[in-house]
Design a protein that fits this description.
By secondary structure, the protein is an alpha+beta fold. About 35% of the residues lie in helices and about 25% in strands. The protein has 3 domains: about 10-185, Threonyl-trna Synthetase, Chain A, domain 2 (Threonyl-tRNA Synthetase, Chain A, domain 2); about 205-495, Bira Bifunctional Protein, Domain 2 (BirA Bifunctional Protein, domain 2), CATH 3.30.930.10; about 500-600, Rossmann fold (3-Layer(aba) Sandwich), CATH 3.40.50.800. It binds one RNA strand of 76 nucleotides through strand 7, strand 8, helix 7, strand 23 and helix 15.
Amino acid sequence: MAEKKEERYEDSELYRIRHSAAHIMAQAVMEMFEPGEAQIAIGPPIAEGFYYDFELPRPLTPEDFPAIEKRMAEIIKEGHKFEKKVVSAKEAKKEFKNQVYKVELIEGLENGGFDEYGEPLDGPPEISFYTHDNFTDLCRGPHVEDTSKINPRGLKLMSIAGAYWRGDEKRPQLQRVYGTAWKTPKDLKRHLWQIEEAKKRDHRKLGKELQIFTFDEEVGPGLPLWSPRGAAIIEELEKLGFEMERKRGYQRVRTPHITKSDLFLRSGHLPYYEESMYPAMEMEGVSYYLKPMNCPFHHKIFASQMRSYRELPMRLAEYGTCYRYEKSGELFGLMRVRSMQMNDAHIYCSEDQFEKEFMAVIDLYLEYFRIFGIEKYVMRLGTHSQAGLGEKYVDNERLWNKTADMVRDAMRNGGIPFVEEADEAAFYGPKIDVQIWSAIGREFSLATNQVDFAQPERLDLKFINQAGKEDVPLCIHRAPLSTHERMIGFLLEHYAGNFPVWLSPEQVRIIPITDKHNDYAVHLQKQMFDLGMRVEADLGSERMGAKIRQAQGFKVPYMLVVGDREVEEETVSLRRRDGEKINDMPVGKFVELMQERIAERSSDL
RNA sequence: GCCACCGUAGCUCAGUUGGCAGAGCAAUCGCUUCGUAAGCGAUAGGUCGAGGGUUCGAAUCCCUCCGGUGGCUCCA
């Protein structure tokens, strides 16, 4: 059993099943068109299935699925062997002379550059075909022995999407058909059930049900409106941020939402980041931009006075509201929006201080993650790409390499595991992002810790060093709590809406059994409200069961049932969100318990 | 932005081949006064996302736009 767990996905039977299913699907799709009409691109297995990319004379729709699935089942039933044949590049190109994408792939292989997914290769690759029935594909395998090894009832076509050839939006867009494949119908059913379950904890659904936030067509896409319940969560996050940062020597600043274009020109935003910015607005012949980031403003505060090395590291923090023009198709609930408030700060330091400051930020991440119980994440070092220099990255390769090394060293010295990914940096420097996954499996960067060697120089930031000479500071941009939007989107899914007490939009709901007990309920409500708690009393004429049901629906952590007994004895009967009951608790004891839980930001109920 | 799909009451969703717009929940008003997940009744609520077209007649067919979903690209 343990051995099985160790098996790499690439070596598994499931991988071969899915890879083979992709070929079979490609055959079925090609047969729908006249010979030569359909172009095929690539069709790999993926995490939970497979896809194949096509260029076809007409768009496919989900209505085509039954016919394709039916044909796939036939091919499977016929039990065609998968046969491998190693060929020369010349033979390969001859076989695929009418398939432009395949020819491009073969050329990539023969020039030793790239594999079929466009990834760079080291050694000289072997070129091979796999053939089953009448369908031959350029493919390195592996596959199942023959098509009958696939269970047609473990297989399902899922969706159609546009996908750019080689992932490049300047190249043709192909039609990608996604499918899922499992060993048994039972596995497929479980997979489909899991998808349904994941949808239940989708923050877009929970956010609506729990009345955390809303979007309005008239306000605009990607511009969330926070309702009182959502705003309560924001306030708690900010409170936490203030506390943590105060202890760690940060100072608060505040800056405007717009600035003259001159500043963004100089900072590098207009040259390297303009695509993500709202267009300029003009007043009296001057153009202004909404800020996509807070950094230039903080830099200007740094630059507003002569700075001494004695002032460093200087840590300027702000929950700044930024606006980014994300393309319409990129928006995603709260996770990807156009207006966002960042848990932002900029740390100005000397090169000597860099490692300590950078790792203090990483420690801060870990501290936050402990509080929230976040365990599933990956830290990723995003570095520049040579191709992007002068385009999406400031053009100074020496400093790119130097600062990336500084980050690598710092992370290794601190013993923090990370993966590295080229072409994932900010325009002004390398960064460590914390990658997390949404309920439906999309990947996002949550926290970020970024080096900025570019803006300090561009904006002429300086300090007087110990030798009495002018020096340029390094800057660390950091947002350990991400943006309110993405953080709360993530937390909604992380907790499945069951926020710990300190974060709960409504911490206590008081439920009088009959309206005789309303006065007592109001009395309790006021008492707790005055202590700063978020507490409601349900004075409706519903029966208690219905009131409990409603409170459960809002995932209120504590429900207090009060009737004759409680009124008489100055107690409450506690029902927790998880169904636990503690009857006849003295009011004072409950309040004490609450305050303790809230103060320590406990994840226990 | 691009490809495919979707848009009916505040929410979840019915609405056959084009023929008078529906249900449950929520809301409001009554009644009910109840011990740990739905008490009963009544009322109100919709330019069927918007605009245009086809038709005797459009929620239903066609076009454009807006918004959303799944992807691609991109990202805190």
